[in-house]
Amino acid sequence: MGGLALLYDVHGNLAALEAVLADAREQGATGHLIGGDVALFGPRPDETVARLRKLRGATWIRGNGERWTAAPGEAPRGDPVQGAIAFARRTLGDDLVRELAALPESADIDETTRAWHASPVSDVRSFLQQAGDDEDELLAGVTQRRLFFGHTHMPFRRIARQRVELVNPGSVGMPFDGDPRAAYALLGPDGELRHRRVPYDHAAAAALLRTEHAGAPWAATVAERIERARLE
Predict the structure, then answer these.
(1) Residue 232: what pLDDT?
(2) DSSP string for residues in 61-92
């Protein structure tokens, strides 16, 4: 038994996180990688962070969500981003916002694997399911054989032209591949990697946003994304 659960893009969706953590326990996971974008956008940012903090020995890295929450001026203007940032800042408090923003940008997983939020060059530019024109730039200087990353909320695994294995575990709290089930991945002790999908009450998570933030455009947009599992 054993293994590492790769938890990316939870986005304050506590119900999805609890479902994933339960599944990971059943699958024998004993470690956790928390790959950034933990709190921003979802209905329960503070409780989500508190739950993740209970995971002993977890490895944390920073996403653009943590950076934006600490520095709203660096984030896109308007809703849903700015409205969600304002809510997250009020809920988390200044000290926790600063603490999350100070997390490292990446972490070594083993001798051949490193984790980032989006890519080695940016926390908002990531790899796609099919190689993009900028993939050589995103992988410039990479010496590892495997990279873990998220940000796009699209689970996949492929070998890049540079012979680097690219692994996106998908999003725990807000998948964008049309499947509303929570997504994560498991790295086994033998190096085997498995993508997992876990059902939870995503409609209830969306309803929380609509009920507690009635009339707020940002909340309506995020609720629809959770329900439809689509960015647009």
Answers:
(1) 86
(2) ---HHHHHHH-GGGSPSSTTHHHHHHHHHHHH
